[in-house]
Amino acid sequence: MTSKDSSLYGAQKPRKLAGGKEISSSTTLSFTSQLSSLINDSNGKSSSNKSAPSRPRPKKDDIFSTHNRNTAKRAKRDLEDSVSFEQKHTTNGQTLDSNTWERSKRKMEEKARLYAAMKRGDVEDLDEKYAVDFDKKWAEKQGQDEDSEQDDDDDLDEQQEEVEYIDEFGRNRKGTAAEAARAEQAKRGQAQVDDDRFTARPSAPSSVIYGDTIQHEAFDPDVPIAVQMAELARKRDKSLTPPPEQHFDGSREVRTKGTGFFQFSGEGEERKQQMENLTQERAETERRRKEREGKVSERKRQVEARRAEIGLKRGKRRADDFLEQLGEELGSRNEGVDPGSEMTNKIEEAIRREEDEA
User: Fold this and answer.
1) In the predicted model, what is the mean pLDDT of residues 67-82?
2) What gap in Å lies between CA 291 and CA 299, rounded to an integer?
3) Which value, in Å, is the radius of gyration of the alpha carbons in the chain?
4) Which of 126, 183, 208, 349 is the most buried (most CB within 10 A)?
5) Which of 27, 1, 26 lies closest to 13 in space, CA to CA?
6) Is 174 helix (H, G, I), strand (E, B) or coil?
């Protein structure tokens, strides 16, 4: 920066315009008034020009007159042979050339025209060139069916022919060819299964001893194993051999609320004495129970005997009463007393006696 362009504080001086005059507010107002006058003049000229006749413009197409534009162009393009419509691949992966494609297309078109002409009746098939001989087709089909049936019969005869074979267990068998084939297949399957089964297994050891044999050195441990066994024996000898007897201690559990609980002692002799006492109490209880049951059964027997005796006495008394009543009835009949009233009184008296006894 030169001394001419710099000021006292380093700020640039405002540059002067080309005319050497600065834009002031009065200049801006004059420019605005001049611009507005020019705009008004242009509007007046345009309004005067409107009265002149305008040139004809092309009429736009109505949306209802043409529904689809360029239809003719697309139809013409469809009739043209385009590369995009050619067959490029097949199901077997082989591309057809254009000559083969055109030849097939022409043949199909000829067949279509011939079929249409035959439907219209334009083609007269006098020599039956295009007719289908259904009788001939039926005869050929019957011949093929007979040949196939004959072949099936031959195969069936061959399968039913008796042959000799070896089954999967190594036995000589006789049967049809189908059975022999099934046996051979089963034998192959079993062999394959056996091979698969023993493939990953190790072979049997060759030094196996069978039968009764005394092995003197069957257990001969090495030095480290012998040292470990000696250490285990030394630790074992520290403990009591055999271990002391341990009995159930009910004081360690809440068993006092159980039915028939008995707290045994931890001492052996005292525990044995308690068990003997319980055994004696049990025997005494069973003895008293048997005595009570015997007394009850004896009482029942006496009651039954007394009941039978009472029944006999009651029957005897009833028999005596009946005989007595019968004698009185016969006597009253002889004396001329009304037997009906007398019998009624006897029946009522017998009923009253039964109620009193009950």
Assistant:
1) 68
2) 12
3) 69
4) 183
5) 1
6) strand
Give the whole-angstrom CA distance, residue 137 versus residue 27: 112
Sign of CA dihedral 94, 96, 97, 99: positive
- What does the H/E/C string look like for 133-168? CHHHHHHHHHHHHHHHHHHHHHHHHHHHCEEEEECC
Angle (CA) 127-133-134 rounded to 5° is 160
Q: 117 with 130: CB under 8 angstroms?
A: no
Which residues contact residue 342 at a Cβ distance below 8 angstroms, ignoring those fewer than 6 apart? Answer: 328, 329, 332
Contacts of 175 (CB under 8 A, 6+ apart): 162, 163, 165, 183
Enclosing H/E stretch for 68: none
Residue type, 73: K
Do residues 345 and 325 touch, judged by C-beta distance below 8 A? no
**265-285 pLDDT per residue, tens:** 878 888 899 999 999 999 999
Closest CA to 168 of 182, 189, 183: 183
**Confidence band, pLDDT 50/70/90 cuts, at residue 15:** low
Report which of residues 20 and 331 the model is more confident about: 331
Residue with tokens 């060819």: 177
Nearest to 329 by CA among 348, 345, 342: 342
Closest CA to 114 of 135, 129, 133: 129
The two structure tokens encoding residue 81: 């042979």
pTM: 0.24
- Grade residue 122 by pLDDT with cuts at 50, 70 and 90: confident
Delimit the domains of the chain by residue range: 138-197, 271-357
Structural tokens at position 14 = 């405002």
Which tens digit of pLDDT belongs to each residue from 285-323? 999 999 999 999 999 999 999 999 988 888 888 888 888
